[in-house]
Amino acid sequence: MSGQILEPGQIEAAANIPPFLHLPGRDLFIRRAERLRSLAQGHPLAGYLLLIANLCEAQQQVLDNPPPLPGPAPAAIARSREHRMPPIPFESLVRADGWLAAVDALLERLQGAANPAVDEALAQLRGADPDQRKAWGVSLLSGQFDLLPPAIAPFIGAALQVAFSHWLLALPEGALVENDTRTLCPACGSPPVAGMIRHRGKHNGLRYLSCSLCSCEWHYVRLKCSHCQESKHLAYFSLERLGRTAEQAPLRAETCPGCQSYLKHCYLEFDADAEAQADDLASLDLDMRLADEGYLRRAPNLLLAPGGE
Questions:
Q1: Which residue in 109, 277, 257 sits closest to 190, CA to CA?
Q2: Handedness of CA 286, 290, 291, 297 (dihedral sign)
Q3: What pTM, to 2 d.p., does this model score?
């Protein structure tokens, strides 16, 4: 066996390099459903949060027993690693057929929603042909929300999340590498839905951006805008008060005056059960307040129906 002998200074430097990735477990959707049910208690949007919790449970069932979901070929994954590119790129895979079986698998598990609006949306999705479903998927991931019915968005988003999470968890070891575009997911190239400030073990105190699509989390230094990478004059806002927050606030939005964007962050030290997608959905009032202040949200929550419930 051959290897490189590290000098003491090199060993210390290597030991101080933060872990690049924090990958989700295979129970990611059921944990999300449990968090949504907890957050729904006494919440003004309890009905919607419980609806999405049921959808997340269906996602977990599909992830546990997936239909054939052909993803990128091994040769394509190897090329992605060679060129330091995302191995499951959403821009190309959403235009292919590989994820569409997740739509039908979800629909099989969402029978009898007992909600006329939901039943109507599911019926419209069932009646759509593959090309229409792909067109809706492309529109959703490209942020063109006006090109798909709002009520269908969470179900298309849920199917895409199942497929991309399935592909993420099936990647061979070493397929994910750091790249120059640190503001986007190294697995699929999607933007983050939120940041997670971790508090345990080797991840203690580190910020990980959580992908809006595949749920991969990657390290990104703190006190730096996750969109334009500016580090000056960042401010933090919370649900309790629109302004600089107390240090104990479990959810805060980091705002950047340079690009006028923001990203929410969950501080696990103060709420160890926080989950990026769920806590983002449960804090839409913070989005509205920040919009009133002129800040822009850069990444969607794929489980949100644009324009309301």
A1: 277
A2: negative
A3: 0.91
Please list the residues that pair with 237 across neighbouring strands: 253
Rounded Cα gap, residues 299 and 309, in angstroms: 19
For residues 32 and 49, the answer to whether their CB atoms sit within 8 Å is no
Q: Determine the residue type at 11.
A: I
What is the C-alpha to C-alpha distance for residues 232 and 259, in angstroms, rounded to an integer?
A: 11
Separation CA 106–CA 161 (nearest Å): 11
> For 200, how many CA atoms within 13 A lie in the half-sphere containing its CB?
6
Structure tokens, 24: 């989700």
Nearest residue to 239 (alpha-carbon basis) of 271, 281, 284: 284
Q: Tell me the per-residue pLDDT of 241-269, one tens digit each, with 9 for 90 and over.
A: 544 446 778 999 999 999 999 999 999 99
Distance CA 146, CA 307 (A): 10
Instruction: Give pLDDT tens digits for 269-305.
Output: 999 999 999 999 999 999 999 999 999 998 889 999 7
Give the span between the Cα atoms of 282 and 264, in whole angstroms. 12
**Residues 158, 103: Cα–Cα separation, whole Å:** 8
Token pair, residue 139, equals 């529109």
